[in-house]
Design a protein that fits this description.
This protein is mainly alpha-helical. The protein has 7 helices and no strands. The protein starts with a helix and ends with a helix.
């Protein structure tokens, strides 16, 4: 019964992403489109690979939400022109290497390798937003990152078999979301 806490995590993650979407629509938050697009792709690949490797749907729900929410943010970023964060050469470089990681996974067709490369891809996609959170914390809303860390942590309540396929992406999501929260709060207080 305790495994159903992942549903609570998914609801919390939806709440967190909805606040980010609201702030994006208002022009207060400026998402890096490269990051948010790739954040939608990499977790969904991770979900597919985990399911292929036998991980339950309930256990991968937080990882699915980690891809679905960013897809919504990516779409919304086109609605308000004031919410756009200008992409620079470094953003495109991270995006390029992120896509290369996904191609390497596609060539290997191994679930654990797929998850590892999806994590590498996601981390490379996260790098521009981590830097932006540090340098321009006023352009970020931390709610989805707090909610994302919580939601990812709920995965562990639904895992039946503790395999790399089951734990790698949730562990990574906790780390990356915690990093984003820390950067935004730490540097916001300095400004």
């Amino acid at each position: 019964m305790i495994q159903y806490i992942v549903i609570v995590g998914a609801i919390v993650q939806l709440y967190g992403i909805s606040s980010y979407i609201k702030e994006t629509l208002l022009g207060n938050t400026k998402p890096n489109r490269m990051t948010w697009l790739l954040w939608s792709i990499a977790p969904l690949i991770g979900v597919t690979a985990a399911i292929v490797d036998g991980v339950s749907l309930l256990a991968v729900l937080p990882v699915f939400m980690a891809g679905f929410g960013p897809f919504l943010v990516f779409i919304v970023s086109f609605i308000n022109k004031n919410s756009y964060w200008k992409l620079e050469k470094f953003d495109y470089l991270c995006g390029f290497f992120s896509i290369i990681s996904l191609v390497i996974w596609w060539l290997t067709k191994q679930p654990v390798i797929a998850i590892i490369f999806a994590i590498i891809s996601d981390a490379l996609a996260a790098t521009p937003t981590i830097i932006k959170s540090r340098l321009h914390p006023e352009t970020e809303t931390v709610d989805p990152f707090v909610a994302g860390a919580f939601s990812a942590a709920t995965s562990f309540f639904a895992i039946k078999y503790w395999t790399l396929s089951a734990i790698l992406f949730p562990l990574y999501l906790i780390c990356v979301n915690s990093t984003l929260v820390t950067m935004a709060y730490k540097h916001r207080s300095k400004n």
